[in-house]
Amino acid sequence: MADWMSQQGTVGEALTRQGISRRSLLKYSSYLATLLALPPTSSQAIAQALAGAKRQSVIWLSFQECTGCIESLTRSFSPSVEEMIFNLISLDYQETLQAAAGEAAERARLEAMEANKGKYVVVVDGSVSTRDGGIYSTAAGKTNLEVLKETAKDALAILSVGTCSSFGGIPRAHPNPTGAEPVSAIITDKPIINVSGCPPMPEVIAGTIAYLVTFGKLPELDHLGRPKPFFGDNIHDRCYRRPFYDQGKFAKSFDDAGAREGWCLYELGCKGPVTYNACATIKWNGNTSFPIQSGHGCLGCSEPNFWDAGSFYKPLPGRMTGAGEAVLGAAAVGAVAGAGSAFIARRRKAAASDPSASPSVPEGADQ
Amino acid sequence: MSPRDVGHDGGQFAQVSTGMAHAVEREIGQHLLALAHDGTEAAIDLRSIPMSDADRAELEESLGRGEVSATLDAMGRSDIWETAHAGVWWVRHFGTEGQVMAERIEIARVPDILRADPADVEAAAIRLGRARDFIDAHADSVAGG
Lengths: 367, 145
Hints:
The structure holds two protein chains of two kinds.
Chain A: H1 11-17, H2 22-35, H3 43-52, E1 56-62, H4 68-74, H5 79-88, E2 89-94, H6 102-115, E3 121-125, E4 128-129, E5 138-139, E6 142-143, H7 144-152, E7 157-161, H8 163-167, E8 180-181, E9 192-195, H9 202-215, H10 228-231, H11 235-238, H12 242-246, H13 257-260, H14 279-282, H15 323-331, H16 337-352
Parallel strand pairs in A: 1-2, 1-3, 3-7, 7-9
Antiparallel strand pairs in A: 4-8, 5-6
Chain B: H1 20-38, E1 42-45, H2 53-63, E2 69-73, E3 77-82, E4 88-94, E5 100-107, H3 118-137, H4 139-143
Antiparallel strand pairs in B: 1-5, 2-3, 3-4, 4-5
Helix pairs in contact in B: 1-2
């Protein structure tokens, strides 16, 4: 881990040290405003707030995980996103990235906890083994369970990155030999944000952290603790194949004519209608594509128990109702079907991302 | 670069003109009146509204090109141009790999991102001052070859 990643001071100072202009920050703020569905005129205020904000101390704990979540962030489409997010935070502990090892690494974690008591954010990727006292996953002679409890005690908030730390994920899948549990099952007295996905989208991880640093509070969360600006819409509502669903045009196999024409993958087991994430709008690899655009149905990886929810290739029971019916109404006017669904989703998203409606982090948040 | 090349799904929706360009144009007109009247600046995030590629192309063609254009090189390229309507700017930000990060219409005398930020100006002044001090301190050796 480069030294500057863990230096204190303000974001503006960090940028100046690296010769990054305020124009870059303003540009990034424009991007954030778009991501978070904030008013476009807010980008200047975001840039000013970020420049003056203290870099957020972050302690990143990796438990029963595959390292896909940190890979998602650090190998994101654009190095600039990765670089910018590391300017917003002081990454004081991260086993994969830090240069220190062994006792020195653990000492760094304890020192960061002491220096930023009550102010640091804990990022967790991976689920936590709880069976037999959590002995199935240990590091530095301590179980993950012990380290989580010890580190969370004086934390400002916890960011569960990935489906494993948010909901248990694959380690918690049947028969769950390690007694894997999500962070929220263990820590109940701290604000927890779940950024689910297997892996989560880099823009969503970065955007959530940027929101915390900029506004000093949590974004509005859905009933599963996920930030509404990113998880307010289901994949189906924002999918470019949605008009075909409305027209009753479904691919019957992955290589039939309908599939090649871009017809809806609902009958091939797509879980888009019950999956909330930003894949269909932000997309992966620099807005290049997402699984459905590549021809495969959504697996529902950002939802709890997705691994045990039945075959990925078995259609969901019944046709969608509820919010979908409103969209079907828009579909009746033909060409504007996509605009109708997108408008409805956007309206929800805009309502979800009003910073004034968000819960604050607890007293003591000094940002 | 054509607006059709800037990162959309290429699905059916992309080719459909929904009339959104006209709606956005009317909104721009309202903001422009406010700018003319009392200097109130505004911005419209083109990535936050359901515009198809066709809508975007229609809007770009309708607004046209004005007298000023600028290219910014900060965290990737940005293309900024004043449209044929004074005070209406099209701002398109690209990432380091050429993908569109943000795209907006700004209604302002000058877009914020073109102005030099006071913090950058201060840093530049300090750097120049140090360079001047260095030259002064070594003036003899420089003059003496």
